[in-house]
Amino acid sequence: MSLSASPLGRRERSKQDKKERIRAAAGELFALHDVGTVTTQQIADRADIAIGTLYLYAATKAELLIMVQNQKFATAIDDGLSAAAAVKGRLDAVLALLHPVVICVLEHVENGRFYLNELVSGDPTEPYRREGLTLAARLEDGLRALLGRDGRIRAGDARMLARVITAVLHLSITGTVNRDRAVDDVMADIQGQIRAVLGQSPPQG
């Protein structure tokens, strides 16, 4: 009998249930309010657990937001990779990958910007941040694969360009100049920057 097929014990099921309740409660509150106005006590109350129990799963409010956003970020990357696979042009494929990510982050702009900044500046050994950084690396790998799939860009150059495009994405989303702009406007800004990075001229007319 495979050990992987063994059912979870009661203790593990209880821990998993509490974690999912915390994730759901935090997600509901962060969908409605900025991270600065939500308290850990509110999340604990909504999850129907003691505040001390909450801290066993996430030590800070930032970690709770990262926990919630990681799930959304992962889905956005999956959607982007699927969309990009159906697109032939290199630039269009890159934009198809990035579009769901931009929507994800701008869905609640303050929390999305906070999330990205926390991934960059927070403790990379903290489990939820580590998970988020793994997702960011997956996005970068997806960009690298798209840039190099037609053979016109060498592997090393594709890797470097993917890193540059990731930086463009981050700055375009987190920069205060784009704070109140719609998704389509932010995507147009990103498109222009990526055109410059790839050395492509804008369409005429």
Task: Please identify, by name, the CATH architecture of the largest domain.
Answer: Orthogonal Bundle
Percent of sequence in beta strands: under 5%
The first-to-last residue Cα distance is 66 Å
Portion in helices = over 70%
Integer-rounded radius of gyration: 19 Å
- Along the chain, the helix and strand elements come as HHHHHHHHH
Overall, the morphology is elongated
Total E-strand runs: 0
- CATH fold assignment of the largest domain: Tetracycline Repressor, domain 2
> Could you say which structural class the secondary elements and strand pairing correspond to?
mainly alpha
Summarize model confidence as the mean pLDDT: 91
**Total number of helices:** 9
Low-confidence stretches: none
How many structural domains does the protein architecture include? 2
The major beta sheet can be summarized as:
none
So, the CATH homologous superfamily of the largest domain?
Answer: Tetracycline Repressor, domain 2
For the record, the CATH class of the largest domain is Mainly Alpha
